[in-house]
Specification:
alpha+beta; RidA_CS; single chain; Rid family detoxifying hydrolase; 60s Ribosomal Protein L30, Chain: A; hydrolase; six-stranded mixed beta sheet; RutC-like_sf; 2 helices; 6 strands; globular; about 130 residues
């Protein structure tokens, strides 16, 4: 197992790594919607969705992969009432990258780190 580190995604805010490469898989830690340069988070849940996906993409790109290599996402959401906004941003992301939709789980949670509205982790394969 090899840790993945990139300046194109936010640094880990705890005792974990941005992602790992293991055999033919790349697995990211949950990605908050922080802009890696400004360290700020957009207010809008759709923008947060896109930023979280872009952060995950930056990590898998560091390992030589792209959005088409993502086979599974897990989406942690603060409020499922915003599901349609999240879905629209999620769909647009994969269309923009000309990538097929991966398998997905979506879970509503009580709270996320830094009071984010969303956190997304991905599994990609070579």
């Amino acid at each position: 197992m090899t840790a993945i580190k990139t300046s194109q995604a936010p640094e880990a805010i705890g005792p974990y790594v941005q992602g790992v490469s293991f055999a033919n898989m790349v697995i990211t830690s949950g990605q908050l919607p922080l802009d890696p340069m400004t360290k700020k988070m957009p207010d809008d849940v759709a923008e947060q969705t896109t930023q979280s996906l872009n952060n995950a993409l930056a990590i898998i790109k560091e390992a030589g992969l792209n959005a088409g290599n993502i086979i599974k996402t897990t989406v942690f959401v603060k409020d499922l009432n915003e599901f349609s906004l999240i879905n629209a941003a999620y769909e647009a992301f994969f269309h923009e990258h000309n990538a097929p939709f991966p398998a997905r789980s979506c879970i509503e949670v009580a709270r996320l780190p830094m009071d984010a509205k969303i956190e997304i982790e991905v599994i990609a394969v070579r």
